[in-house]
Amino acid sequence: MTLRTRLAVAFLAVVLGPVLLGVGFVAMTVSAVNDSRATERLDLAAAGVRTGMNALCQRLRAAAETAAVLGGNRDAAAAQQVVDRKLAAGVQLVDPAGTVQYGAGALPQKPWADCSEARGAATVTAVAARVEVIDADGRRLGYTYAVEPVDPTLVRGLAAAAGAAVTVLGGGGWSTERDADKRQVTRVAEGLRPGTAGETDGGKLVRRLDRGPGQPLPLALSVSREEPRALYAVLVAVVVLAGLLSVAAAWWLARSTVRPLTELSRAVDRLASGDLGIRVPVRTGDEVGRLGTTFNRMAREMQDYLQALTVSRDQLRRHLGLVGDTLSSTHDVNRILEVILESALSATGAKAGVLLLTDQASGVLVGQCGEGLDGRGPGGEPIVVGDLRLRMGEGLLGAVAASGEARRGRTDRDGPQLAANEPRCRAYVVVPFTAYGPDAIAGPTGGLSTAAAESAQNFESPGPARGVLALYDRHGFDEFDDADVVTLRTFAGQAAVALDNVRVHREAQRLSLTDPLTGLSNYRYLKDSLRREVERASRFGHQLTVLALDLDHFKDVNDTYGHAAGDAVLAEFARRIRVEIREVDLAFRQGGEEFVILLPETDAAGGAVVAERLGAAIRRTPMLVRLERSVQPVRIPITASIGIAVYPDHGASGAAVLEAADDALYQAKSGGRDTFRGAWARGGSAPDAAAVSAVGAPEVPEPPRRSHDG
């Protein structure tokens, strides 16, 4: 089955399926509604018939009572008056023995259906109501009957009251049905239980009503179903129209979708055969059109790339040295390695490449970046560069790193055996990052200049490899040549220069911001961090607490035990600070025995808790210092005074808050040392020292303003 057929079938299933389900649901719902309405009509008809029969029986009872009261057993004129007033079709008086005394009106032949009895003859000619006649002494004189014949007039009246066709079961078989329907209705009704409903062959619903008090006649009620033939015709038309539209839409959709895919498939085959000038027509702006546009752009770029690669290969080699010099001044290691690998691939025309560096701790080669490694793993799986790890001497890359010598060749001819997780290839060239001898570039890197790289006879024995750079499978050639080795050595040397530059830069940056004795950040980094934290606190509406710390009587420690002991005390003091503060807090050595701690998102109460904890940690355990003139270490008790200031409560700038903390430190010194004090709030009754100092605070990184020793 073709793609066009599958699309058409899928579209028809998606469109016609819900339509057919909806039509079926509507048809079933309409049929159920019609049945329900017919049943309701039968219920209403049954209620109407019972009401009409009950009214008839009450009228006949009233007529019989009237005749009995007015005439008794003597006056037949009273019975005639009842008939004349049309209260009953006939009136009859019988004695207790059943002998007729007199009668008036039309009296059908018996049997009659008595309104007060639930049973009676199967065939009746009239409906009657019986009243007992009693004299003044209570003696029974007889019975008075008021009679209404069962005839078409009565049946039509019941049908009008019921709103349905009525058939009398027995009693002459009077009915409002047509003769053809009458027989079916009678047959169905005679087979039903009382109160149940059935259906005739003509589609009529039938319900049977048996005799009962107030309902002396057995009746059959029937109503016709209302078949919505017009609605069914509309539904059929909708299905046919939807089917035709769906078929047309499916054909158009399949054709418009498959045609550009077919053209694209043919173009891909031609491109794979080497026809880089092939293009596909783009007729739409949808996903398929964008795919065609992307293919055309890819083919055009491939064609341009192949032409540019052919024309500019030699030119690229002449500029590799300049590219390497540029890379050596970059401090982003990852970017350096990526640029080196990409440039090496462009210069040599390699299809894939990988760059690994030696982990100094484990001595294992670790993958840093790679290109074109999809499908080069074992079994054609892609290689994840971050998971590429090789021991020294393992596989091709490990052997080059261990020997420090570049290698090129083909795996099927020159070996060596590749490691299990090493990229698979046919041709390769691998060079190490190595420190060389007299022709190396001056400086700590030991990288090679272009001239030295091209003069292989001047190389001395290579040192330990820092990493390896490997390229695989050239475009248009079976293997790499000696020129590619020289080019790759240049890149390796420049990579070594760049890596050393980054290392030296980072170390210099670290030393410029770190106090070498305590390992804490220095005063210069304090100014930068304080400005940054104040800006953050101002932006987010937080508080920033500054603690100024000073060792009590530190001059006595230097004078008594020597400056080496003082340095040991300062280092231990810094260590205890680091232990007591949070990871987000910042500790600095401001100079001498003065230290500063920044507590982001901390108020004065929180700062007091930290100050109390720091004071206790310093006071609790004397510091052990090993002196040159003593075999056993000396215990030196140390305490510290702490000043607390909070931004923005005690200053509107970082310098002002630091000055306020410094003034609070003076208060702690004046208060007896080994304690902490908080700064005066701005706008308080005391002079606002923090605000005053904020105006004249120096903005250059310099040593502390004054010593608090003593």
Question: What does this 3D model show about the protein?
Answer:
With 710 residues, this protein is α+β, with helices and mostly antiparallel strands. 47% of the residues lie in helices and 18% in strands. The protein has helices at residues 3-71, 76-84, 152-162, 179-190, 229-272, 287-318, 320-328, 333-348, 395-403, 450-454, 482-513, 523-540, 554-561, 563-580, 604-620, 654-670, 689-696, and strands at 90-94, 100-105, 112-114, 126-134, 140-149, 165-168, 197-199, 204-209, 219-224, 350-358, 365-371, 389-390, 407-410, 427-433, 467-474, 544-551, 586-591, 594-600, 623-625, 634-636, 640-647, 676-678. The strands form 5 sheets. It has a 6-stranded antiparallel sheet. Helix 1 runs antiparallel to helix 5 (229-272) and helix 8 runs antiparallel to helix 11. The model is unreliable at 435-462 and 685-708 (pLDDT under 50).
How is the largest sheet built, in terms of strand order?
A: 12-11-10-15-14-13
Proportion in helices: 40-55%
Q: Which structural class should the secondary elements be placed in?
A: alpha+beta
Main pleated-sheet profile: 6 strands, antiparallel
Rounded to the nearest angstrom, the distance between the terminal CA atoms is: 97 Å
The number of helical segments is: 17
What structural keywords apply?
single chain, 5-stranded mixed β-sheet, alpha+beta, 22 strands, 710 residues, 47% helix, elongated, disordered C terminus, 6-stranded antiparallel β-sheet
